[in-house]
Structure prediction request, 268 residues.
Amino acid sequence: DTTDRNRTSPFAFTGNKFEFRSLGSSASAATPNTMLNTMVAEELCQFADELEQAEDFTAALNTLVKRVIREHKRIIFNGNNYADEWVEEARRRGLLNLKTSVDAIPSLLAEKNVALFRKHKVYTETELHSRYEIMLESYSKTIHIEALTMLEMAKKDVIPAITSYSKALADTAVSKKAACGGVSCELECRLLQKISGLSACFYDKLEALEKAVLGCKSRTENLELALYYKDTVLAAMQELRAVGDEIEALIGEGYLPYPTYGQLLFGV
Prediction:
């Protein structure tokens, strides 16, 4: 499908070219382009080997096209690539679904891929190994820095904001009772209780993240370490973030240490 319908794909083929979308600020399209060009070169090489030996070129070409479509039709999908239905459909078709960088990077060293790059003199096996190690190391270091940054933000900014707002609620409740003993302080008390419960959970998640980060020291092999960051450290970060988001929705805007999404989107 060469129409805009194909634009739901993050990696779309639009008529005569592949398009890349949502590249990170530090990412480059060079690596996927290298992979694509090598794969296309290999396929064209196979086509040429077959067609150059054909006595009837047109008949051989028609046979080749039909066979290739039949053998590889399962990779063609013109629907919504972001829909959950496609994930299930891809699984049914036997297609890979490598959800993270760490899941995908080991494919560089798959025997068939090493042979492919060696054949076309794109990468040697040593060069592929070096890229494999560097990419895993870069992933681990990035998550490590982000985890340490998150811990610092939580300790130095978020927790003080929680305690300041909690104090303001408590002071308001005390002042209302002092001013008029019969006045209700239910709003302040219920909100204070909810925030206190969430803040305790927030601190538990913070300690869990600290423990997860310390656990990295016992792992030295790059793939093992990257898997640990993906499965343990990143998971702990997401849990801390989830509780922080709940608390953010309850705290007064003036107490928040960072701009809200609304301010970022519409406050400029």
